[in-house]
Design a protein that fits this description.
Chains A, B: This is Branched-chain-amino-acid aminotransferase. Two copies of one chain form a homodimer. With about 350 residues, the first copy, chain A, is of the alpha+beta class. Chain A is about 25% helix and about 25% strand. Chain A folds into two domains: about 10-170, 2-Layer Sandwich (D-amino Acid Aminotransferase, Chain A, domain 1); about 175-345, D-amino Acid Aminotransferase, subunit A, domain 2 (D-amino Acid Aminotransferase, Chain A, domain 2), CATH 3.20.10.10. In chain A, the strands form two sheets. In chain A, strands 1, 2, 3, 4, 6, 7, 8, 9, 10 and 19 form a ten-stranded mixed sheet that branches.
Amino acid sequence: METTATAIKIEKIKTSKISQVDFDNLAFGSVFTDHMLVCDYKNGAWQTPEIMPYQAISLEPSAKIFHYGQSIFEGMKAYKDDHGDAFLFRPSDNHRRLNISANRMCIPEIPKAYFMDGLKELINLDKDWIPQKDGSSLYIRPFIFASGKGFHASPADEYKFLICLAPSGAYFSGKVKVLIEETYSRSANGGVGFAKTGGNYAGQFFPTQLAVKEGYNQVIWTDDNTHENIEEAGAMNIFIRINDTLITAPTSDRILDGITRKSILEIAQAEGIRTEVRKITVPEVVEAAKNGSLKEMFGAGTAAVVSPIAAFGYRGTDYDLPELTDSYASRFKKIITDIQYNRSEDPFGWRQKV
Amino acid sequence: METTATAIKIEKIKTSKISQVDFDNLAFGSVFTDHMLVCDYKNGAWQTPEIMPYQAISLEPSAKIFHYGQSIFEGMKAYKDDHGDAFLFRPSDNHRRLNISANRMCIPEIPKAYFMDGLKELINLDKDWIPQKDGSSLYIRPFIFASGKGFHASPADEYKFLICLAPSGAYFSGKVKVLIEETYSRSANGGVGFAKTGGNYAGQFFPTQLAVKEGYNQVIWTDDNTHENIEEAGAMNIFIRINDTLITAPTSDRILDGITRKSILEIAQAEGIRTEVRKITVPEVVEAAKNGSLKEMFGAGTAAVVSPIAAFGYRGTDYDLPELTDSYASRFKKIITDIQYNRSEDPFGWRQKV
């Protein structure tokens, strides 16, 4: 899969749209840059990637994406430092995970060169779109979907790989209140929970809306069998700090192998913070909340970075988390964003200049 | 939801493509008729449905269907009798189920009049496309997907409802050999298994391909926790006949409430066939295969109608089903297709003239 991308075809936009964008008031993922990358899979091979002006896609009504949900994606960000240089964070890990998702969803793997060269070429072209305001970044969305035709429920014979860029503000504003879910589930043992595929997200919307009606921002998913084990929050992995120990669930075929999650585990080790990657149950967390040993809960993901949880709801009771002056969450967030924005050394080798 | 469809806008095709179609050699769902129905949801309401020439759809790359899998569909068929009259089979049940899927996937419900009137208008326009060869029919695909924009993982604000028609031959050719799956799973407790949503299908492709490599046509899914209970086959519900008793699993939030499935249960009652709707375990079926009491297994679904199973594989052993001269499967198939093609009375009130 180390195929070198043949020279990427580039068609530049005639007039940039950048002057129309209010970079001080960016929502998340709702404004798109001048260009996008498109690469078609047909006749059994990925074709030459093309960079072109951001534009609509034309598809047959029988394209399998509309019917059988063959789609995968990644979430990444590009950051700009004070000198105007652009950086990516662990991009090879996104490529690796995209192909893990591809295999589970019967989508052909994308060669690394197509992904990395295409990504860098595209970001260089739209470098002026990387916001420099703190908390803002250029959100990067690589995705693949089934464009092949037909109503037979089987894998498509044609796919489209795209990369789109969206200058974005914060995913969550402020602290997050979560509900521990015991009725609905996100994924099955032997299912596709570990893959970044569309269906995993659509299935969460209804239970999340029910939680939002009750005043929560997100759902924390538990396993579908016992609803005892804390798994993930759908758009974030979950960390729990009991006394000074940081706990998170092991990844499995139900849980996404988050890049921010594993970065936090590595930072914690370097910082001498005791970590436990193990099953953590709801009763354990409730008990810790009651006896005061529960110090922190936070989500970790590319979109939300490190997202402190202010309270969790469980069986009709809300449990507030304490307000700490020097939280693990804020330490991790500072270390990660300092690396991302080239404000610090990068002892882990995660930062990659575009 | 009994809104009357405002007059459907109709734009007819200039020249029909029908003369290009070989009706004697139709695959399943790969040829499409002259027209399609399109109805947009925006500004909080479904707009006027339009019938137009079958054509490509244009979508923004950030349309949520590509990222978050919000999609639902139905499978139906239209049949033609010897007089050239066209019929549908229990179409209201498809409308009802589409809205059940819609609710679970946070998609706005489609009003019944939009569905039924649009369907009938479209079929009347493309009536000449209904094949009359035995075993062939006009496959109907109503579907809704998220066309609204943005990378935020939340329900879209715009949707498209389409109906496309595909003159089709049989879904399976010949008898089917199935593998009882114990590693992978189709759906979780509290998940979306009962909804006809794209992600439920994409997740099956990989395990099904593994089974196909071993010589099977389809997988029979078991529950994700114990892998003991027989659930469904992904594109079909499953019936098992032990001695003269017909057994099928109860519907649940993991299993699709199949229209062919419930038709068979009603026919069985009318025919005096003893039925049991209950959990049925793999060990029970294996034991019945060994002691000779297992008489039949068959799948039931709109696409495949009634699909006899010739053998099932389990833990490395294949168990053959006997060849019966007067099987339940063939009786049900005859009764159902005689009703569908207007070759018999319709004591159940299932047939609807278009």
